Every structure is written in structure tokens, then in C-alpha cells.
Amino acid sequence: DAGVIQSPRHEVTEMGQEVTLRCKPISGHNSLFWYRQTMMRGLELLIYFNNNVPIDDSGMPEDRFSAKMPNASFSTLKIQPSEPRDSAVYFCASSLLTGQETQYFGPGTRLLVL
Amino acid sequence: AQSVAQPEDQVNVAEGNPLTVKCTYSVSGNPYLFWYVQYPNRGLQFLLKYITGDNLVKGSYGFEAEFNKSQTSFHLKKPSALVSDSALYFCAVRETGTASKLTFGTGTRLQVTL
User: Which of A42, A101, A107 sits opposite B42 (nearest CB)?
Assistant: First the structure.
């Protein structure tokens, strides 16, 4: 299995630009999670989906952030407009809804907003 | 609300010595408990989990964890540490019967020296 795939692995952009992060979950998994990791705030859950439906987006910092999951094999996290404080590593994770599910993480996207 | 605490920011141990990374949790009902490891510039990697049954759970790379309900703890242990075990370790909890969301601790950095 290829595991969770994220792209790009690194992104450098200027303040005000739109940033789109992409995630392909493990085939067959039906839950998908977006996390953000910073030194100051640690690991934060931004949003998660079950069966392509957003369940909890209470962790999304503000309206500049949006996430979609148009099908079972693809999700995007968009930041528009980006700000320097958005600089972080963004992780995608997926799991199988079994009641005992283990989340499997992708390698992350390291975002730097200048 | 569920929560997890990792009281130590860093644990230092000499190679060959036993190691313990501490974790305590708080949930209203019964917990599912997880340990993940993060190596530099990598995503979180699943180590082990407790769902039910035997309180001693064995996982990858020789790690094990003991579930203690009375002390609400789930400490990670290894009998003999390796330099290659040096990484960031996260404890996570989910309450049974709730949705898929995991709550992660702040992480403990393990440093194993020769």
C-alpha cells in the first residue's frame, strides 16, 4: 500500500497568495483528517470527514481556511489569502471507520508563507 | 471532553537502559488509547493501541504500553533503549462511542545517548 499521499511536500509562498494542499487517503479508508503542527501550538486537528462528509470543522482557524473532499480518494485544504502565521507543517491522515480505527498519517506539507 | 497529558517535554536515557514515556488521560467513558512516534521531517507513525483486553499492549520496534484504569495512565515503555529510538512521541485518546476524533498530547521528545 502506498500509504497516505500528500502534495506538495514543501510550499513557499508570499503573503496574500492562495495555497492548496492535497491529500490522497489510503485506498478503502473512509475517514480523513487534516492536522496542523507548529512548535508553539503542537498538533491541532483542523477538520475531519467521514464518508466524504465534513463532521467537525471546529479546528479550522478562520474563514481563510476551507477543506473539501469531492470523492473518497481526494481531499484539499485551501488557504486564501495566506498569512505568515499559517506557516506550519500540515498533515493529512486517514482511517477506516470500524469503531477502533487507527489513523495513518501522510508525510506532511511544510508550508512557509513569507 | 476527552484530554490527554504528557507531563514531560523531554526524556533522556542512555542506550541499553529501560525507557518510560508517561501519558495520562481523561474521558467520560472507556478510552481507546494510542501511541505514535514522529521522526524528524516525517509524519506520525502508529506504534500501538489499547482497545480492550490485556492491559499490556505490545507494539512496533519493541515498544509496549500498560493501560492502568485506576491511574488513568498509558505509559510507553521499552526494556532497552536504542539511539535510533530518539524521536518525538505522542499519546492520543478517543472515547468509545464517540466519533472518530483523536485528542493528542503535546508530545515528549525522547533522547537516547550512547
Answer: A107
